[in-house]
């Protein structure tokens, strides 16, 4: 399908977005692309790379994984806002987002192939960096489509379904890695890479993109630096929504990062079987989130209200974490994790919709949504730094009570952060 030329600054009055009307297959393809890129990234980073390090050299797997993850994290923090900004400025007959969707998918697949044949730390780190660059470009462009092409009246539902698909991708990807042969490392990486690339290519074919051919102002170093910054004074609503997302993400990451160790040390599950309990906890977390994701996305779109959903989410998350903190056995722990998952599902049903509604303006949606992505990526560095002193409190084994208490505080502060927002109810 050929893209339709659309004035970038003109917003279609019947759609509340700057893009032209899309074919019926657009939203399904949008969700599938979101699913595919997240499956590729979460499966490769969360399951395939750790398994590769364990098989290559079990004695150094933790250090090697930390180094590769750190390199990949730095790369994605740099490229996500930058690629979003570059897609805003793209002048192409293919459109402003489509070149980045397809080009990123191809690069991500190349990185997966590199990983498939890597046999040591640095080739794995290189391959992971290429994967992050490639699918990071695709992710930045796909996220920008929420502001470009999806009207506000259905944005929460669409973003909620897309977020739910990412959760399904995490579970499915982990199952794929478990089902593949242990002596076929290349499959661990190439299979999720192909899934992500193919589903992104389908969106490339089905998107009627915005086309900009007019000259763009020259870039300066000040413009490049502004890619990673929006003034809180000039855009207070965006700042508070971003802060909410940062704090809520820190709350979830504080628990998710150390979940396996909590199961072993606090619930007394042997390490040989703890992974099974962790997988079950992930399943109930996801199921709880899928139910509330769809429900609250529909409620939010029908009422036009986003902030009450966030408050409800943060309150239930705090209750679930408190219950998990003192859970005496596995059934109580799983019930608590299901409650936290339900709370997180409610939150993500309005999360991205809220962020798109406080964007300074549509023309720089790719850049601004790249900054939004930083609120999810920064906690991956902050949480481990804060967890080290928290877990050391008392000196008598890891202090998971302190860690969970910090997670509760982060969540509550995240809910309070949306109070000053005025442009969204």
Notes on the protein architecture:
The chain has 425 residues and is mainly alpha-helical. The protein folds into two domains: 201 residues, Up-down Bundle (Growth Hormone, Chain: A); 182 residues, Growth Hormone, Chain: A, CATH 1.20.1250.20. It is 74% helix and 0% strand. The chain is built from 15 helices and no strands. α11 runs antiparallel to α12. The N terminus is likely disordered.
Features:
425 residues; mainly alpha; Growth Hormone, Chain: A; 15 helices; 0% strand
Number of domains: 2
CATH topology of the largest domain: Growth Hormone, Chain: A
Q: Please, what is the CATH homologous superfamily of the largest domain? A: MFS general substrate transporter like domains
Helix content: over 70%
The H/E string reads HHHHHHHHHHHHHHH
- How far apart are the termini? 38 Å
The 3D shape can be described as: globular
Find the structural class using helix and strand composition.
mainly alpha
Strand content: under 5%
The low-confidence runs, each spanning 5 or more residues with pLDDT under 50, are 1-15
Q: What oligomeric arrangement do these chains adopt?
A: single chain
Mean pLDDT across all residues, rounded? 79
Number of strands: 0
Rg over CA atoms, rounded to whole Å, is 21 Å
Give me the CATH architecture of the largest domain, please. Up-down Bundle
Determine the number of helices (DSSP H or I, runs of at least 4 residues): 15
Largest sheet: none
CATH class of the largest domain: Mainly Alpha
Short description:
This protein has 15 helices and no strands. By secondary structure, the protein is mainly α.
